[in-house]
Specification:
This protein has about 425 residues and is of the alpha/beta class. The chain has two domains: about 200 residues, 3-Layer(aba) Sandwich (Rossmann fold), CATH 3.40.50; about 190 residues, Class I glutamine amidotransferase (GATase) domain (Rossmann fold, 3-Layer(aba) Sandwich), CATH 3.40.50. The protein has twelve helices and 25 strands. The two termini are about 40 Å apart.
Protein backbone atom coordinates (compact mmCIF):
# COMPACT_ATOMS: atom_id res chain seq x y z
CA UNK A 1 0.00 0.00 0.00
CA UNK A 2 1.28 3.45 -0.93
CA UNK A 3 0.05 5.85 1.74
CA UNK A 4 1.04 9.16 3.33
CA UNK A 5 0.45 11.38 6.36
CA UNK A 6 -1.94 13.60 4.36
CA UNK A 7 -3.32 14.39 0.93
CA UNK A 8 -1.03 16.25 -1.44
CA UNK A 9 2.11 14.31 -0.49
CA UNK A 10 2.45 12.60 -3.88
CA UNK A 11 0.76 9.21 -3.39
CA UNK A 12 -0.79 9.11 -6.83
CA UNK A 13 2.33 10.18 -8.70
CA UNK A 14 4.51 7.67 -6.83
CA UNK A 15 1.98 4.87 -7.36
CA UNK A 16 1.74 5.70 -11.06
CA UNK A 17 5.53 5.92 -11.35
CA UNK A 18 6.03 2.49 -9.77
CA UNK A 19 3.27 0.98 -11.92
CA UNK A 20 4.63 2.39 -15.18
CA UNK A 21 8.23 1.47 -14.26
CA UNK A 22 7.41 -2.19 -13.62
CA UNK A 23 5.08 -2.35 -16.62
CA UNK A 24 7.93 -1.17 -18.83
CA UNK A 25 10.06 -3.96 -17.35
CA UNK A 26 7.54 -6.43 -18.75
CA UNK A 27 5.88 -7.26 -15.44
CA UNK A 28 2.15 -7.67 -14.93
CA UNK A 29 1.00 -4.88 -12.60
CA UNK A 30 -2.42 -4.46 -11.03
CA UNK A 31 -3.36 -1.30 -9.14
CA UNK A 32 -6.21 -0.62 -6.73
CA UNK A 33 -7.46 2.62 -5.18
CA UNK A 34 -8.61 2.80 -1.57
CA UNK A 35 -12.07 4.26 -1.16
CA UNK A 36 -14.38 5.99 -3.62
CA UNK A 37 -12.46 7.81 -6.35
CA UNK A 38 -12.76 8.14 -10.12
CA UNK A 39 -9.94 10.45 -11.18
CA UNK A 40 -6.84 8.83 -9.66
CA UNK A 41 -7.86 5.41 -11.06
CA UNK A 42 -8.03 6.84 -14.59
CA UNK A 43 -4.38 7.84 -14.34
CA UNK A 44 -3.36 4.61 -12.63
CA UNK A 45 -5.13 2.57 -15.30
CA UNK A 46 -3.12 4.39 -17.95
CA UNK A 47 0.08 3.75 -16.01
CA UNK A 48 -0.52 0.02 -15.51
CA UNK A 49 -2.54 -0.89 -18.58
CA UNK A 50 -5.30 -2.51 -16.51
CA UNK A 51 -8.60 -1.31 -15.03
CA UNK A 52 -8.25 0.01 -11.48
CA UNK A 53 -10.82 -1.29 -9.00
CA UNK A 54 -11.80 0.29 -5.68
CA UNK A 55 -11.13 -1.36 -2.32
CA UNK A 56 -13.61 0.03 0.19
CA UNK A 57 -14.56 -1.87 3.32
CA UNK A 58 -17.83 0.07 3.63
CA UNK A 59 -19.04 0.03 0.04
CA UNK A 60 -17.90 -3.47 -0.90
CA UNK A 61 -17.22 -5.30 2.36
CA UNK A 62 -14.30 -7.49 3.44
CA UNK A 63 -15.09 -10.57 1.33
CA UNK A 64 -15.61 -8.52 -1.83
CA UNK A 65 -12.29 -6.72 -1.33
CA UNK A 66 -10.51 -9.97 -0.50
CA UNK A 67 -11.82 -11.51 -3.69
CA UNK A 68 -10.57 -8.62 -5.81
CA UNK A 69 -7.11 -8.79 -4.23
CA UNK A 70 -6.86 -12.57 -4.59
CA UNK A 71 -7.93 -12.39 -8.23
CA UNK A 72 -5.35 -9.69 -8.98
CA UNK A 73 -2.57 -11.49 -7.14
CA UNK A 74 -3.26 -14.68 -9.08
CA UNK A 75 -2.46 -13.00 -12.39
CA UNK A 76 0.06 -10.30 -11.50
CA UNK A 77 3.71 -9.90 -10.56
CA UNK A 78 3.06 -6.74 -8.54
CA UNK A 79 -0.07 -5.45 -6.81
CA UNK A 80 -0.20 -1.81 -5.70
CA UNK A 81 -2.90 -0.22 -3.56
CA UNK A 82 -2.99 3.56 -3.42
CA UNK A 83 -4.33 4.86 -0.12
CA UNK A 84 -6.68 7.79 0.35
CA UNK A 85 -6.05 10.99 2.34
CA UNK A 86 -3.73 10.32 5.28
CA UNK A 87 -3.02 6.76 6.41
CA UNK A 88 -5.30 6.96 9.46
CA UNK A 89 -7.91 9.38 8.06
CA UNK A 90 -11.51 8.32 7.57
CA UNK A 91 -13.56 5.38 8.77
CA UNK A 92 -12.71 2.94 7.30
CA UNK A 93 -9.19 4.26 6.77
CA UNK A 94 -6.31 3.15 4.57
CA UNK A 95 -4.75 1.72 7.73
CA UNK A 96 -7.87 -0.39 8.32
CA UNK A 97 -7.57 -1.81 4.81
CA UNK A 98 -3.84 -2.49 5.16
CA UNK A 99 -4.34 -4.19 8.53
CA UNK A 100 -7.27 -6.30 7.31
CA UNK A 101 -5.31 -7.80 4.41
CA UNK A 102 -1.75 -7.61 5.73
CA UNK A 103 -0.64 -5.03 3.17
CA UNK A 104 2.84 -3.62 3.87
CA UNK A 105 2.80 0.18 3.80
CA UNK A 106 5.15 2.32 1.73
CA UNK A 107 4.88 5.83 3.18
CA UNK A 108 5.24 8.82 0.84
CA UNK A 109 6.19 11.99 2.72
CA UNK A 110 6.71 15.44 1.23
CA UNK A 111 10.16 16.34 2.56
CA UNK A 112 10.33 19.69 0.81
CA UNK A 113 10.08 21.83 3.94
CA UNK A 114 11.72 19.64 6.60
CA UNK A 115 14.93 17.86 7.53
CA UNK A 116 15.32 15.76 10.73
CA UNK A 117 11.61 16.12 11.48
CA UNK A 118 11.08 13.83 8.49
CA UNK A 119 12.26 10.94 10.66
CA UNK A 120 9.93 11.87 13.51
CA UNK A 121 6.97 12.09 11.17
CA UNK A 122 7.77 8.73 9.57
CA UNK A 123 8.25 7.10 13.00
CA UNK A 124 4.94 8.46 14.25
CA UNK A 125 3.14 7.28 11.12
CA UNK A 126 4.54 3.78 11.55
CA UNK A 127 3.81 3.44 15.27
CA UNK A 128 0.56 5.38 15.79
CA UNK A 129 -1.53 2.19 15.62
CA UNK A 130 -0.48 -1.44 16.10
CA UNK A 131 -0.81 -4.17 13.53
CA UNK A 132 0.77 -2.46 10.52
CA UNK A 133 3.90 -3.51 8.64
CA UNK A 134 5.98 -0.85 6.90
CA UNK A 135 8.05 -1.59 3.81
CA UNK A 136 9.83 1.75 3.95
CA UNK A 137 9.57 5.46 3.21
CA UNK A 138 9.71 7.58 0.06
CA UNK A 139 11.00 11.12 0.50
CA UNK A 140 9.22 13.26 -2.08
CA UNK A 141 10.22 16.70 -3.39
CA UNK A 142 13.71 16.75 -1.86
CA UNK A 143 15.76 19.80 -2.75
CA UNK A 144 19.20 18.25 -3.35
CA UNK A 145 21.30 15.09 -2.85
CA UNK A 146 22.44 16.53 0.47
CA UNK A 147 18.84 17.06 1.54
CA UNK A 148 18.07 13.46 0.57
CA UNK A 149 20.93 12.17 2.74
CA UNK A 150 19.75 14.30 5.65
CA UNK A 151 16.18 12.98 5.65
CA UNK A 152 17.43 9.42 5.14
CA UNK A 153 19.75 9.65 8.14
CA UNK A 154 16.84 10.92 10.26
CA UNK A 155 14.88 7.69 9.77
CA UNK A 156 14.96 5.00 12.48
CA UNK A 157 16.62 1.68 11.50
CA UNK A 158 13.31 -0.14 10.99
CA UNK A 159 12.17 2.37 8.35
CA UNK A 160 14.48 2.27 5.32
CA UNK A 161 14.54 5.09 2.79
CA UNK A 162 13.34 3.43 -0.39
CA UNK A 163 13.65 6.44 -2.70
CA UNK A 164 14.26 10.18 -2.63
CA UNK A 165 12.48 11.99 -5.47
CA UNK A 166 13.60 15.47 -6.40
CA UNK A 167 11.41 18.54 -6.63
CA UNK A 168 10.39 18.89 -10.30
CA UNK A 169 7.33 20.76 -11.55
CA UNK A 170 7.51 18.73 -14.76
CA UNK A 171 6.51 15.69 -12.72
CA UNK A 172 3.14 17.15 -11.65
CA UNK A 173 -0.34 16.74 -13.07
CA UNK A 174 -2.91 19.54 -13.54
CA UNK A 175 -5.83 19.58 -11.11
CA UNK A 176 -9.31 21.08 -10.86
CA UNK A 177 -12.08 21.23 -8.24
CA UNK A 178 -12.82 17.47 -8.02
CA UNK A 179 -9.17 16.41 -8.23
CA UNK A 180 -6.82 15.53 -11.07
CA UNK A 181 -7.70 16.45 -14.64
CA UNK A 182 -9.01 13.31 -16.35
CA UNK A 183 -6.28 11.26 -18.02
CA UNK A 184 -8.27 11.21 -21.27
CA UNK A 185 -8.01 15.02 -21.42
CA UNK A 186 -4.19 15.07 -21.29
CA UNK A 187 -2.65 14.52 -24.73
CA UNK A 188 0.81 14.03 -23.21
CA UNK A 189 -0.26 11.76 -20.35
CA UNK A 190 1.92 8.84 -21.48
CA UNK A 191 4.99 11.07 -21.80
CA UNK A 192 4.33 12.37 -18.28
CA UNK A 193 4.00 8.84 -16.92
CA UNK A 194 7.22 7.81 -18.61
CA UNK A 195 9.03 10.74 -16.98
CA UNK A 196 7.65 9.66 -13.61
CA UNK A 197 8.84 6.10 -14.24
CA UNK A 198 12.29 7.39 -15.24
CA UNK A 199 12.48 9.42 -12.03
CA UNK A 200 11.50 6.39 -9.94
CA UNK A 201 14.02 4.13 -11.68
CA UNK A 202 16.80 6.60 -10.93
CA UNK A 203 15.76 7.21 -7.31
CA UNK A 204 14.74 3.80 -5.94
CA UNK A 205 17.25 1.85 -3.87
CA UNK A 206 18.41 -1.02 -6.13
CA UNK A 207 17.97 -3.64 -3.43
CA UNK A 208 14.33 -2.72 -2.69
CA UNK A 209 11.76 -5.41 -3.38
CA UNK A 210 8.09 -5.31 -2.52
CA UNK A 211 7.34 -7.80 0.28
CA UNK A 212 5.37 -10.90 -0.63
CA UNK A 213 1.79 -11.14 0.61
CA UNK A 214 -0.52 -14.15 0.35
CA UNK A 215 -4.21 -13.40 -0.15
CA UNK A 216 -6.65 -16.09 0.87
CA UNK A 217 -9.34 -16.63 -1.71
CA UNK A 218 -12.72 -15.27 -0.67
CA UNK A 219 -15.96 -17.22 -1.08
CA UNK A 220 -17.18 -16.90 -4.65
CA UNK A 221 -19.76 -14.15 -5.02
CA UNK A 222 -22.85 -15.74 -6.52
CA UNK A 223 -24.58 -13.28 -8.85
CA UNK A 224 -27.89 -14.21 -10.46
CA UNK A 225 -28.27 -13.46 -14.16
CA UNK A 226 -31.04 -10.98 -13.54
CA UNK A 227 -30.26 -8.87 -16.62
CA UNK A 228 -30.07 -11.55 -19.32
CA UNK A 229 -31.12 -9.98 -22.61
CA UNK A 230 -30.96 -6.41 -21.26
CA UNK A 231 -28.80 -3.83 -23.04
CA UNK A 232 -27.63 -0.99 -20.79
CA UNK A 233 -26.36 2.14 -22.55
CA UNK A 234 -23.71 3.93 -20.46
CA UNK A 235 -22.53 7.50 -21.10
CA UNK A 236 -18.78 7.87 -21.43
CA UNK A 237 -16.94 10.98 -22.55
CA UNK A 238 -15.18 13.95 -20.95
CA UNK A 239 -18.52 15.27 -19.61
CA UNK A 240 -19.79 12.06 -17.97
CA UNK A 241 -17.22 9.40 -17.18
CA UNK A 242 -17.29 8.51 -13.46
CA UNK A 243 -17.81 4.76 -13.75
CA UNK A 244 -16.45 2.13 -11.37
CA UNK A 245 -15.07 -0.87 -13.33
CA UNK A 246 -16.70 -3.06 -10.67
CA UNK A 247 -20.09 -1.62 -11.64
CA UNK A 248 -19.66 -2.57 -15.28
CA UNK A 249 -18.43 -6.02 -14.28
CA UNK A 250 -21.44 -6.40 -11.99
CA UNK A 251 -23.87 -5.57 -14.80
CA UNK A 252 -22.12 -7.98 -17.16
CA UNK A 253 -22.09 -10.74 -14.51
CA UNK A 254 -25.87 -10.37 -14.30
CA UNK A 255 -26.09 -10.89 -18.07
CA UNK A 256 -26.36 -7.31 -19.29
CA UNK A 257 -24.89 -6.22 -22.60
CA UNK A 258 -23.11 -2.84 -22.40
CA UNK A 259 -23.39 -0.18 -25.11
CA UNK A 260 -21.30 2.98 -24.70
CA UNK A 261 -22.30 6.39 -26.01
CA UNK A 262 -21.24 10.03 -25.82
CA UNK A 263 -23.73 12.73 -24.77
CA UNK A 264 -21.34 15.30 -26.23
CA UNK A 265 -20.87 13.77 -29.67
CA UNK A 266 -23.72 11.35 -30.37
CA UNK A 267 -27.09 12.60 -31.58
CA UNK A 268 -29.05 9.52 -30.51
CA UNK A 269 -28.90 6.71 -28.00
CA UNK A 270 -27.66 3.31 -29.16
CA UNK A 271 -30.31 0.58 -29.28
CA UNK A 272 -30.89 -0.18 -25.59
CA UNK A 273 -33.33 -1.20 -22.91
CA UNK A 274 -31.93 1.04 -20.14
CA UNK A 275 -29.63 4.04 -19.76
CA UNK A 276 -27.08 4.94 -17.09
CA UNK A 277 -25.82 8.52 -16.88
CA UNK A 278 -22.88 8.46 -14.43
CA UNK A 279 -21.19 11.43 -12.80
CA UNK A 280 -18.57 13.65 -14.34
CA UNK A 281 -17.99 17.27 -15.26
CA UNK A 282 -21.16 18.49 -17.03
CA UNK A 283 -20.43 22.00 -15.72
CA UNK A 284 -17.22 22.14 -17.77
CA UNK A 285 -19.10 21.13 -20.92
CA UNK A 286 -22.40 22.88 -20.26
CA UNK A 287 -22.48 24.90 -23.55
CA UNK A 288 -21.79 21.77 -25.62
CA UNK A 289 -24.34 19.69 -23.71
CA UNK A 290 -26.87 22.49 -24.07
CA UNK A 291 -26.31 22.53 -27.83
CA UNK A 292 -26.69 18.75 -28.15
CA UNK A 293 -30.44 18.86 -28.64
CA UNK A 294 -30.56 15.52 -30.46
CA UNK A 295 -29.27 13.66 -27.41
CA UNK A 296 -31.55 15.65 -25.09
CA UNK A 297 -34.53 14.65 -27.22
CA UNK A 298 -33.42 11.02 -27.24
CA UNK A 299 -33.24 10.96 -23.45
CA UNK A 300 -36.68 12.58 -23.14
CA UNK A 301 -38.12 10.01 -25.54
CA UNK A 302 -36.46 7.16 -23.62
CA UNK A 303 -37.99 8.43 -20.38
CA UNK A 304 -41.40 9.05 -21.95
CA UNK A 305 -41.43 5.46 -23.21
CA UNK A 306 -41.14 4.26 -19.61
CA UNK A 307 -37.69 2.76 -20.07
CA UNK A 308 -35.28 2.52 -17.10
CA UNK A 309 -32.91 5.45 -16.59
CA UNK A 310 -30.36 5.91 -13.79
CA UNK A 311 -28.72 9.32 -13.32
CA UNK A 312 -25.96 9.90 -10.77
CA UNK A 313 -24.53 13.27 -9.70
CA UNK A 314 -23.30 14.82 -12.97
CA UNK A 315 -25.81 12.68 -14.85
CA UNK A 316 -28.52 14.11 -12.60
CA UNK A 317 -27.39 17.66 -13.43
CA UNK A 318 -27.54 16.87 -17.14
CA UNK A 319 -31.18 15.71 -16.89
CA UNK A 320 -32.38 18.92 -15.22
CA UNK A 321 -33.97 21.91 -16.94
CA UNK A 322 -31.10 24.25 -16.15
CA UNK A 323 -27.51 24.21 -14.92
CA UNK A 324 -26.18 27.53 -13.60
CA UNK A 325 -22.42 28.08 -13.67
CA UNK A 326 -20.39 29.78 -10.94
CA UNK A 327 -20.44 32.93 -13.09
CA UNK A 328 -24.24 32.95 -13.17
CA UNK A 329 -24.56 31.76 -16.77
CA UNK A 330 -27.67 29.63 -17.27
CA UNK A 331 -27.40 26.58 -19.52
CA UNK A 332 -30.39 24.64 -20.81
CA UNK A 333 -29.97 20.94 -20.08
CA UNK A 334 -31.91 17.87 -21.24
CA UNK A 335 -35.18 18.80 -19.53
CA UNK A 336 -36.03 15.29 -18.36
CA UNK A 337 -36.24 16.25 -14.67
CA UNK A 338 -37.79 19.51 -13.44
CA UNK A 339 -35.47 21.82 -11.55
CA UNK A 340 -32.09 23.48 -11.68
CA UNK A 341 -28.66 23.09 -10.15
CA UNK A 342 -26.29 25.92 -9.27
CA UNK A 343 -22.55 25.35 -9.22
CA UNK A 344 -20.76 26.52 -6.07
CA UNK A 345 -17.17 27.61 -5.58
CA UNK A 346 -16.95 25.55 -2.41
CA UNK A 347 -17.56 21.86 -1.79
CA UNK A 348 -21.26 21.21 -1.18
CA UNK A 349 -21.14 17.60 0.03
CA UNK A 350 -18.74 14.69 0.49
CA UNK A 351 -18.93 11.33 2.23
CA UNK A 352 -19.97 7.69 2.17
CA UNK A 353 -23.70 7.03 1.82
CA UNK A 354 -26.15 4.18 2.38
CA UNK A 355 -29.67 4.32 0.95
CA UNK A 356 -32.66 2.14 1.81
CA UNK A 357 -34.85 1.84 -1.28
CA UNK A 358 -37.82 -0.42 -2.03
CA UNK A 359 -35.39 -2.72 -3.88
CA UNK A 360 -33.04 -2.94 -0.89
CA UNK A 361 -30.08 -1.12 0.65
CA UNK A 362 -27.31 0.13 -1.64
CA UNK A 363 -24.07 1.86 -0.72
CA UNK A 364 -21.94 4.49 -2.39
CA UNK A 365 -20.63 7.99 -1.87
CA UNK A 366 -21.28 11.64 -2.68
CA UNK A 367 -18.89 14.40 -3.75
CA UNK A 368 -20.16 17.53 -5.50
CA UNK A 369 -19.94 21.29 -5.84
CA UNK A 370 -23.56 22.08 -6.74
CA UNK A 371 -26.90 22.61 -5.04
CA UNK A 372 -30.19 21.35 -6.44
CA UNK A 373 -33.70 22.81 -6.48
CA UNK A 374 -36.54 20.59 -7.71
CA UNK A 375 -40.28 20.27 -7.03
CA UNK A 376 -39.92 16.49 -6.84
CA UNK A 377 -40.31 14.84 -3.45
CA UNK A 378 -37.51 12.41 -2.53
CA UNK A 379 -38.28 8.72 -2.57
CA UNK A 380 -35.67 8.24 0.16
CA UNK A 381 -32.70 9.90 1.81
CA UNK A 382 -29.30 8.40 2.33
CA UNK A 383 -27.52 8.13 5.65
CA UNK A 384 -23.83 8.47 6.42
CA UNK A 385 -22.06 5.69 8.35
CA UNK A 386 -20.53 8.37 10.56
CA UNK A 387 -23.95 9.80 11.40
CA UNK A 388 -22.73 13.18 10.20
CA UNK A 389 -22.69 15.01 6.90
CA UNK A 390 -25.04 15.10 3.97
CA UNK A 391 -28.11 12.88 3.64
CA UNK A 392 -28.56 12.86 -0.13
CA UNK A 393 -32.03 12.58 -1.64
CA UNK A 394 -32.98 9.89 -4.13
CA UNK A 395 -35.66 10.87 -6.64
CA UNK A 396 -37.86 8.52 -8.60
CA UNK A 397 -40.41 9.24 -11.30
CA UNK A 398 -41.67 6.26 -13.22
CA UNK A 399 -38.60 4.22 -14.23
CA UNK A 400 -36.22 7.13 -13.66
CA UNK A 401 -33.99 7.04 -10.56
CA UNK A 402 -31.76 10.05 -9.89
CA UNK A 403 -29.50 11.15 -7.05
CA UNK A 404 -26.19 12.77 -6.19
CA UNK A 405 -25.11 9.36 -4.82
CA UNK A 406 -22.56 7.39 -6.86
CA UNK A 407 -23.76 3.84 -6.20
CA UNK A 408 -21.36 0.92 -5.86
CA UNK A 409 -23.33 -1.77 -7.69
CA UNK A 410 -21.70 -4.81 -5.99
CA UNK A 411 -23.11 -3.57 -2.67
CA UNK A 412 -26.49 -4.99 -3.78
CA UNK A 413 -26.59 -6.41 -7.33
CA UNK A 414 -30.22 -7.47 -7.01
CA UNK A 415 -31.37 -3.95 -6.19
CA UNK A 416 -29.35 -2.54 -9.07
CA UNK A 417 -30.81 -5.08 -11.49
CA UNK A 418 -34.30 -3.89 -10.55
CA UNK A 419 -33.38 -0.37 -11.72
CA UNK A 420 -32.42 -1.56 -15.20
CA UNK A 421 -34.87 -4.31 -16.10
Amino acid sequence: MISAPASGQGKTSVTAAIARHHTRLGQRVRVFKTGPDFLDPMLLERASGHPVFQLDLFMGGVDHCRGLLAEAAHGADLVLVEGVMGLYDGDPSSADLARTFGLPVLAVIDAGAMAQTFGALAHGLATYQPGLTFAGVVANRVGSPGHARMVGEALPPHLPLVAALGRDTALSMPERHLGLVQAMELPDVDARLDRWADAWAQAVVPAFEAPEVVFDAAPAEAVERLLDGVTVAIARDTALSFVYPANVRCLEAMGARIAWFSPLHDTALPPCDAVWLPGGYPELHAPALSAARGMAGALRAHDAAGKPLLAECGGLLYLLDTLVGTDGTRHTMAGVLPGEAVMQRRLAAIGLQAVDLPEGRVRGHTFHYSTLTTPLEPLARATSPSGRGTAEAVYRRGRLTASYVHTYFPSNPGAVAAWFR
